[in-house]
């Protein structure tokens, strides 16, 4: 072993990674390396005065580095560090053919070598082995200097071995913390990648000269780009944008997970929602509005079900309004335990029916408001089989008994093969969606000008609520059941909301009126004669009773009323119901939907 002097062979000193090592050793003394033995094919060095960390290492001279056929790629260097090694071999071979020197971390280097690609190990540049069980591998000036050096600054470039390409993907933190059975805290911490994001950010910052790739889908485009002799800053910028976005989403998952570990409030002082483009839409709510649909990639949304993750089996592409309506229909139908059909128009359920026989439920849901149901969204909480699909295809509108019902979308948790085939035959445009039941307990976010409102999703169902009888008339078992059914429906109707229901079927509803009395009148008109003895649910209390909504409902023969109560005139509502012999139930729960 000899002490290295400034007289080290110039031929070796000029070659990366030796230029780096020697630069470090001789000029800048950035790390405490003490001895280097120079062979024709290796440098042997030892470093660190700390006994526990003393090492002796041999660095091989990469004698078999293929030379580029294209002179523009000669002496180019790529840094590759990948947890997900998908398509690594083809990338490595492609880069090697282009004459790139490849520098890699442990597992990545092994995979590349197994694929017959020559690799320089990161340690050869850092003169330091991976330490702290992989917590520190690439966090070293020789790596980050090589990524961040500006080509137009001489003092940046002096004796630095630079990287032209950085390909990194990160520890699979997201997959680990969302895996079945979860992950314990210590494992979660160890799966937070530190060195990877540092390299990605450095390369993305210096994208003018350093290409950065975080997604294996981009390997083919990268190789094509490198094969061409033309630079394209737009390509580089797009990769840099993707790199920062990748790290931002990664960090948002880490921070979301960590916040949960603090047992902190449901509403953190700040948080980031990672969104991924699912599709660009033809237009927004109206044709002059451009639009796109994004899937929420938060940890809270993993396997949470819902319309964003639905599989579309058939039909025209989903539109902006289709998503809103399908969401409303699915949210509503998912809440029912018995086989149920919900038909939605403009986000309001206009038909809801539950029956053991889903065919019957479907027909009753249409019958509730056949005019509105036409062109609506039909949702089921049970599988769509051949018989149901035939009914959907053939059923004629009860308004004229002739026109076949037409729908924009059918949503269900599953379809039989036969059911799907029949629905596909109904229309080439009919969108057929399959999705999973929504999870409860999620945060609901909604945009207003300049901000977002966050709240718990409204998960309360009649089982969670006490229907307190406050009238002299006690409801019969069937009336109580009707009130509960109406209650579950009214929760999904836009305020002011009134629903009239009987025998597991919505008979009429009034939605979105600026006064409750108007909603009541609309609901009663739709229910017609069937209003007699039916249940009425109101999403919020009645501010007035006499000569107002309560009395009007009683006069028209409503059998039972369910409302939250809480008005200073609750006494009037009770007196009014007592006068007309109507049962009045107070729920103490309001279901505004704005
Ligand atoms: N700490 C470091 O210096 C470091 N440098 C690279 N990594 C990560 O290590 C992974 C690759 O490791 P390997 O090549 O040993 O399979 C990559 O996901 C990369 O992001 C690191 N690990 C995590 O922080």
Report what the structure shows:
The protein is an alpha/beta fold and 594 residues long. The chain is 34% helix and 20% strand. The protein contains 21 helices and 24 strands. The strands form six sheets. A six-stranded mixed sheet has the order 11-16-15-14-12-13, sandwiched between helices. Strands 19-24-23-22-20-21 form a six-stranded mixed sheet, sandwiched between helices. Strands 6-5-4-7-8 form a five-stranded parallel sheet, with helices on both faces. The longest helix has 29 residues, at 233-261. The protein is elongated and about 95 Å long. Residues 1-71 have low confidence and may be disordered. The ligand NC(=O)c1ncn([C@@H]2O[C@H](COP(=O)(O)O)[C@@H](O)[C@H]2O)c1NC=O is lined by residues 81-83, 105-108, 134-139, 168-171, 193-196. This is AICAR transformylase.
């Amino acid at each position: 072993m000899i002490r290295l002097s400034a007289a080290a062979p110039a031929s070796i000193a000029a070659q990366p990674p030796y230029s780096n090592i020697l630069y470090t050793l001789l000029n800048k003394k950035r790390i405490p390396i003490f001895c280097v033995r120079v062979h024709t094919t290796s440098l042997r060095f030892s470093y660190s005065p700390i006994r526990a960390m003393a090492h002796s290492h041999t660095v091989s001279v990469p004698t078999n580095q293929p030379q580029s056929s294209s002179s523009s790629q000669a002496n180019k260097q790529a840094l590759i560090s990948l947890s997900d090694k998908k398509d690594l071999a083809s990338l490595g071979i492609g880069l090697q053919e282009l004459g790139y020197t490849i520098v890699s971390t442990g597992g990545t280097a092994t995979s590349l070598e197994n694929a017959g690609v020559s690799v320089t190990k990161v340690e050869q540049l850092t003169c330091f082995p991976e330490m702290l069980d992989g917590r520190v591998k690439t966090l070293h000036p020789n790596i980050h200097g090589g990524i961040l050096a500006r080509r137009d600054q001489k003092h940046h470039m002096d004796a630095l071995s630079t990287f032209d390409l950085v390909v990194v993907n990160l520890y699979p933190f997201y997959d680990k913390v969302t895996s079945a059975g979860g992950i314990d805290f210590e494992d979660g911490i160890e799966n937070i990648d530190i060195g990877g994001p540092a390299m990605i950010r450095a390369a993305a910052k210096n994208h003018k000269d350093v290409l950065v790739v975080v997604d294996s889908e981009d390997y083919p485009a990268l190789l094509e780009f490198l094969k061409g002799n033309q630079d394209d800053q737009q390509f580089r910028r797009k990769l840099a944008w993707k790199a920062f976005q990748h790290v931002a989403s990664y960090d948002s998952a880490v921070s979301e997970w960590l916040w949960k570990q603090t047992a902190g409030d449901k509403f953190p002082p700040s948080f980031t929602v990672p969104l991924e483009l699912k599709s660009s839409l033809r237009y927004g709510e109206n044709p002059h509005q451009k639009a796109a649909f994004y899937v929420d990639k938060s940890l809270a949304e993993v396997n949470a079900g819902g319309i964003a993750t639905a599989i579309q089996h058939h039909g025209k592409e989903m539109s902006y309004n289709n998503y809103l309506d399908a969401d409303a229909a699915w949210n509503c139908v998912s809440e029912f335990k018995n086989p149920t059909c919900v038909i939605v128009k403009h986000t309001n359920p206009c038909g809801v029916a539950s029956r053991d026989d889903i065919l019957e439920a479907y027909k009753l849901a249409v019958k509730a408001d056949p005019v509105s149901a036409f062109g609506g969204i039909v949702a089921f909480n049970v599988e769509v089989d051949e018989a149901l699909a035939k009914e959907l295809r053939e059923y004629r509108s009860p308004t004229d008994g002739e026109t076949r019902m037409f729908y924009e979308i059918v949503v269900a948790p599953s379809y039989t093969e036969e059911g799907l085939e029949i629905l596909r035959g109904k229309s080439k445009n009919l969108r057929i969606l399959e999705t999973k039941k929504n999870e409860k307990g999620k945060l609901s976010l909604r945009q207003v000008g300049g901000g977002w409102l966050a709240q718990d999703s409204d998960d309360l169902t009649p089982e969670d609520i006490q229907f307190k009888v406050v009238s002299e008339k006690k409801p019969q078992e069937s009336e109580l059941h009707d009130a509960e059914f109406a209650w579950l429906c009214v929760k999904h109707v836009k305020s002011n909301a009134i629903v009239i229901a009987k025998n597991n079927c919505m008979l009429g509803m009034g939605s979105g009126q600026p006064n409750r009395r108007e909603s009541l009148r609309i609901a009663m008109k739709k229910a017609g004669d069937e209003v007699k003895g039916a249940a009425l649910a109101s999403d919020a209390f009645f501010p007035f009773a006499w000569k107002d909504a309560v009395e009007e409902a009683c006069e028209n023969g409503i059998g039972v009323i369910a409302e939250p109560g809480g008005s200073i005139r609750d006494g009037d509502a009770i007196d009014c119901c007592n006068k007309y012999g109507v049962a009045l139930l107070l729920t103490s729960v309001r279901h505004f939907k704005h």
